[in-house]
Amino acid sequence: MSLLLGALAGVALDARFGEVRRWHPLVGFGRLAQWLEGRLNGAGGRGGRAHGVLGWCLAVLPPVLLAGWLGTRFGGWWDALALYFALGLNSLAQHALPVAQALRLGQLDEARRRVGYLVSRDTTQLDAAGVARAGTESVLENGSDAVFAALFWFLVGGAPGVVLYRLANTLDAMWGYRNARFERFGWAAARIDDALNYVPARLVAITYALLGDTRRALRCWRRQAPQWDSPNAGPVMAAGAGALGLSLGGAASYHGCEEQRPRLGEGPPARARDIERALNRVYAGVLLWLALLLAVGGVLHA
After folding, report:
1. What are the φ/ψ torsions at residue 228 (nearest 5 degrees)?
2. What is the arithmetic mean of pLDDT over 43-50?
3. When comparing pLDDT for 4 and 169, which is higher?
4. Average model confidence (pLDDT) for the chain?
5. How many C-beta atoms lie closer than 10 Å to residue 169's C-beta?
6. Inter-residue contact 196 to 165 (CB < 8 Å)
7. Chain segment 85-109, per-residue pLDDT in tens
8. Closest C-alpha among 43, 73, 40 to residue 56
9. Are 33 and 170 in contact (CB under 8 A)?
10. Segments making up each domain of the chain, as ranges
């Protein structure tokens, strides 16, 4: 019951206050990660896999142990605060809704700029359909990474669990690139993040399917997800696109190189309103998870 109350409190804090504007712990962690990577990998990417494993352990394990110790001192209050710092639901909405609004007003340059905060692909040459597609994909995938997976690991391991997940996910975003600099050094960060997201991503795919066209979502998941290069983003976005009845994927430019990605979903291309529809699915999914947790908690406590 304490974790359930912590989950409710953490979600409520995120809804009320959103992302911390100053002195966010992840900002300090990012600087630490940059320093460690510079020392262990160097500008030329000389570090091997062992260096990456060492860097991951030095960056992640001390904060996780600290989170566990603080939990013994402050209990449920610390649990709720740790989840609040890890959740990104309010932040996701604050970044996604301006993209949809700019598209609706015909402000393509502003929409390109805004969606660039959400995705790693090049956005300067996207047309309106490309911006809508990128925004919708980002909401579905980041809903899994920044919201549901954080909730999952909080329920599994409390404050230490959610701190472990959020820091591992941050390192993947910083080190998990397949390029000359990070191919070896970032291998551990990428693989660990894949492992931590494996179960949550499939729960999210089921959640999206239940909140839309379930049969089509499950069909797209089964047929299309294996073609996607990410073992976790594939199920999430295929099921999400199928549930929404639209098509995602296709060409995208990364660092000047165009990639032809497999198609996900079925139906017409994404439009501005689909960014909002995807965000509404994330909100509804969070409410569904919390309702299920309340039901389970009530049964166990009876």
Report:
1. -80, 145
2. 85
3. 169
4. 93
5. 23
6. yes
7. 999 999 999 999 999 999 999 999 9
8. 40
9. yes
10. 2-301
- Distant-in-sequence, close-in-space partners of 289: CB < 8 Å, separation ≥ 6: 148, 151, 207
Cβ-based neighbours of 234, under 8 Å, separated by 6 or more: 224, 225, 226, 227, 228, 264
Indicate the pLDDT class of residue 302, thresholds 50, 70 and 90: low
- Contact (CB, 8 A) for 149 and 165: yes
H-assigned helices in the chain: 2-17, 25-40, 49-74, 76-86, 89-104, 108-115, 128-143, 149-175, 187-210, 214-224, 233-244, 272-301
Task: Output phi, psi for 251, to 5 deg.
Answer: -70, 140
Other C-beta atoms lying within 10 Å of the C-beta of residue 291: 10
**Distance between CA atoms of 150 and 178, rounded to whole angstroms?**
25
**In the predicted structure, residue 301 carries a pLDDT above the cut 80:** no
Note the pLDDT tens digit of each residue in 210-226.
999 999 999 999 999 99
- Closest by CA position to 262, among listed 232, 208, 214, 223: 223
Residue 249 tokens read as 């994927």
